[in-house]
Each structure stands twice: as C-alpha cells, then as structure tokens.
Sequence to fold (290 residues):
Amino acid sequence: MIGATWKRDSRSAAIGCLIAMLVLSRPALVAASRERIVSLTPSVTETLFALGAGPEVVGVSQYCDYPPAVGKLPRVGSFLTPNIEAIVALRPTLVIGSWISSDLPAFQSLNSMGYPTLIVKDNSLEQIEESIRAIGDRIGRSEQARDLLASINQHLDDVRRRLEGVKLRTVLMVVGHQPLVAVGSGTYLDELLHIAGGINIADGTGDSWPHLSIEYIVAMKPEVILDGQMGDDPTAPQRFWSEYPGIPAVQNHRIYSYPEDLTLHPGPRVWQSLEVLASRIHPEAAANPP
Fold:
C-alpha cells in the first residue's frame, strides 16, 4: 500500500514538474515562433508597423523612412535591387515585396531557396486595401487589418463629405523633372486627385507616369500645380513655374509643393495624402490638413 502510494505520488510529482517546465518555457517558445519579416517597400513597412508587427520586422528597403523606428533597422537594398546576401543573413521567415519585384531574379532566388515570400499590389485604392488585408491575414493580424481599413475608409469618406459640391479644378501633379514626369491615369494618386476635387490634365495621355512637355502643360491650362520635386524650399516651385505666366496656376499663385515621403507611399497613410492634396486643390473646403 505504501509502495503504491509512493509510486502514485512520484508520478504526480513528475507530471507537475513537466507542466511547470512547459509553463516556464512558454515565453521562449513564443519568442522562437515570432515572425522575422523583411520588407522591400516603404508602403509594406508602414503597413506592418500600423498592424502592430513592428517588433517582427528585421530588415527594410533603403527607401523606408516611416515610422521613425525603421531608422534603426538593417537595410537590404530596394524593391528593384534587393540584396540577397543581406536578406538571407537576417534569417527571415517572410519576405514581402511589391508586384514590381516579383519578376526580379533576386526575388525568384529567394523562392528557390525556400524563403517564404508575399507579393502585394498597391497601385490603386482597391489594391492598397487588398494588400493591407493580405498582409494582415499572412501574419495573423486579420482583425487589426480590418480595424485599420475601417479607420482609413472613415477618413476618406470624411474628406469626400467636405468636398461635396466644390467646383472641379484642373490639376497637374509633378513627380519628376528633366524630363517632367506627372501623375497619370490608372494610379492611386490619380484617384486621390479626383476625390480631392481635381481634374488631372495628364489623364488624356493614357500613361500612368507620362513625360509631359511644357507646351502640353501650357495648352492644358492647369488651375493648380502640385510639384514635389523642388526640395525643402516651399518657394522653389513658384520660381520654376514663374517662367510660364500663361498658365492659370501661375497667374493665380496656385502652385504648391507636397511631402513626397507621405504622398508617394501608397500605404496606411493614404488618407493623409488625400488631406494634403485636398488642402492644395480646395483650401476653402478642406479643413485641418495634417
């Protein structure tokens, strides 16, 4: 009887010790299973941080600059020239790139070496929404993605309401000089221009990023010019365009710069980009720009 009791107590003690070991080791197991994500585009990086996955990001592209925490992360090239050695050295469990990087030999090499990858598209508002949802699903943050999308759409709708009934203005949005490159049709920026109460004069070219001549711009008579290629000097766009006084935007002093690091990143801050564009095109209706 005593022997049986001793055996039973010993067995219970052993089970208790095993349970205690599992409980005590659980944090280590969780830490070991955490994702190690490499992002190859600024919009993906912003999405990961917005979803609360910042601690799991171990590498970013050379162009990633938001949020400020990414400044401390290793750089692994760009979406066009990813550094395979640098990526592999980070032992990623997931590499996320854009649709542009999917056809690159470097990205295909990652797939062939067995590194999990995810490709997202972000060239329209619908694609931005789909990319946020896809990233959330892939990293186990579907609920956070739904909340984030609900917040983004709420802000977009708020801007739409404020601009109801405004008179549309013809707009040129410049993203590059020498040659002059503009926002064209079929892009998320073109969508934002229309939501912001603008008529994009580059839509007629049929290109997403058309090269425009000064002669074309003068003939199209834009009422507003948005120029992000003038550096940090807010008066620089005025000086450049002042050479073409026949343009209505020049005559009426409706030439504005815009923050490239925000506006040209098609991610969770897209509603803030809309606020910026709306405040330039219709300052009388777009209140409280960020």
